[in-house]
Amino acid sequence: MPISEGIDFRNPPVAGVAMRLTQRVTRITAPNAGVMTGPGTNTYVVGERDLAVIDPGPAIASHVAAIVRHAGRRLRWIFVTHTHLDHSPAARAVAAETGAQLIGRPPPDGGRQDRDFVPEHVPNDGEVIVCDGCTLRAVQTPGHASNHLCWLLEEERLLFTGDHIMQGSTVVITPPDGDMSAYFASLEKVLALDVDVLAPGHGSLIGEPQAAVRRLIGHRLWRERKVVDALADAGTPTLDELLPVVYSDVAPQLHAAARGSLHAHLLKLARDGRAIQTADRWRAA
Questions:
Q1: Cα 191 to Cα 124: distance, rounded to the nearest angstrom
Q2: Is the pLDDT of residue 1 over 50?
Q3: Would you say 7 and 22 are in contact if contact means Cβ atoms under 8 Å apart?
């Protein structure tokens, strides 16, 4: 029986509450709800005896205390999907309290990165790490961040997606570290996995993973077509002139965040030979 048949997908995250999701997975959501984080960053505690944590989240004292209170001295491993400031900064404090090993990829150059995250082990793509009763496989998924990893819990065919896939919204891709071409390739990579459930960094569990990923790919292709059409209509616009046209369906207060994804779409189109940049202006190729 697929593990998804025993899951209540309507079970929403509640900050500070440890919610048992499956036999091996408990979710503790950080109190950092917002426009970009939804109900907050999900921290997942994985295992039955010795435990692992995936994405300890922001360094908020109450959240660190909730993780330590739930996992205690049984915590052996801390896995990080990427080093954005809402996902990894609590790693140091949790490790200091428990002695757990830090596993993930170092922060890349640029802004919005947790410079204090220093992994003790840097996994390769496809590397398998055996915990107590759990097998976690690293799945390299750059796009939202160049150092992004998803983690596949093989016993439950459950993929911890970090910010690669979120429930209820699309993710922001902000160059230069964010890369739209890489993001498309990483979505295709997840599509090929044998997965029953997605456990995102923000929001509730996601069932029917293949359908969810196809919807994301379809949405991104639809947005790309809007960019191409806007370039054809506007002549040689700047990025900021394109923004309200391409994101006419998005509330203006979210345009600042959407600007990064528009830039990523334009850079992808340029690599594909479909757009040309001259100084700060763009035109169709």
A1: 20
A2: no
A3: yes
